[in-house]
Amino acid sequence: MRVHPLTGLAVAGSTAVITTAAASLPLSLAAAAGAVAVAGARGRARRLVPAAAAVLVPLTLSLLMVHGLSYPEGRTVLAQWGPARVTAEGLGFALQRGAQVWAAVLVLLAYSFSVSVPDLVAALNAKGLRGRFAFVLASTLTLLPAIAEHVERIRAAQESRGLVIRKGLLHRAAAFRLQAVPLVLALVDDAGSRAAALESRGFSNAGPRTSYREVPDSAWQRTVRWALVAAAAAAVALRLVATASGGAP
Predict the structure, then answer these.
(1) Could you read off the pLDDT of 43-84 as tens digits, one per residue?
(2) What is the pTM of this model?
(3) Does the first or last residue of the chain, that is N or C, have fewer Cβ atoms within 10 Å of its Cβ?
(4) Are 83 and 144 in contact, with CB atoms under 8 Å apart?
(5) How confident is the model over 151-180, as pLDDT tens digits?
């Protein structure tokens, strides 16, 4: 059974929306674990985990610092340094929000590391989205996988020239400093090549378009997509109602 690219996008997007709206720590942890498990089953875990860590570790640390040290509703003080204080309520709130962010980022990254960009662009074109917008959307979803692939190639090239990357965070950070310049240059060159390719294929031209690539779809997958969109909308509506009636923020 072949999963349609838009079905995978609906699963990832609705999961991110529902876990954020639900604000449930067990649900967020389950969604994050499920995303890692799916990536592992598809052989993408080795690429997913470093990319996710690069995004999520700074965000998690910032949440812990902001809410752990200055949560206004905090009453149970665990430690205090002058005006700054660490409260159990602040750490709990930061943990809950961090789990929501982890779930949303991991499910979207798991999708972006597994989706076929040509299939996604063709599927979006078949739904009436203009070629340029479809390509931009697909490129945005697959930006981190593209960066990870460029970094891997640059690292392999530098190691073949004698660069030794030892274990440890500091050594890897120092090595990334040497990889940053060729990475940026490669991304700029790649963007120029893609822009030229889009123009040569007439992506900016108006009028009807045809595609040589057909992505099979089925009625049950369309039903699943609409059901997922409805579930995400219902989760947001319930969250708004709960907030308006004085529920948890």
Answers:
(1) 888 778 877 887 888 888 888 877 777 777 767 777 767 666
(2) 0.71
(3) N
(4) no
(5) 777 777 777 777 666 665 565 666 666 777
